[in-house]
């Protein structure tokens, strides 16, 4: 069995961003259902239509991307992007002109 050390280049963040129609009651229901499915799968809201999920590996990220694709709404735009933990850590966030801290990285459980 091959083991991989968790590092900033192996650990991934999956980012899902979307622009969904909300013109009709059915559209609003589809948009709400999509967001609920993201939350159920462990994604956290980063901005209103941007959700993030921390994944310990590229393979785990691929699993969650597959789940997102299965729950895509019938209309609207959805983007999915994977970035490394290192890239995520280089992001600068601001609220107005004040710098804001990045979301907390979930704790990793290590079994030896």
Automatic annotation (TrEMBL):
This is CRISPR-associated endoribonuclease Cas2. HAMAP family: Cas2. It comes from the Bacteria. Keywords: Antiviral defense, Endonuclease, Hydrolase, Magnesium, Metal-binding, Nuclease. Belongs to the CRISPR-associated endoribonuclease Cas2 protein family. GO terms for molecular function: endonuclease activity. Mg(2+) binds at residue 19. CRISPR (clustered regularly interspaced short palindromic repeat), is an adaptive immune system that provides protection against mobile genetic elements (viruses, transposable elements and conjugative plasmids). CRISPR clusters contain sequences complementary to antecedent mobile elements and target invading nucleic acids. CRISPR clusters are transcribed and processed into CRISPR RNA (crRNA). Functions as a ssRNA-specific endoribonuclease. Involved in the integration of spacer DNA into the CRISPR cassette. It is an enzyme of class 3 (hydrolase). Its cofactor is Mg(2+). Homodimer, forms a heterotetramer with a Cas1 homodimer. Its EC number is 3.1.-.-.
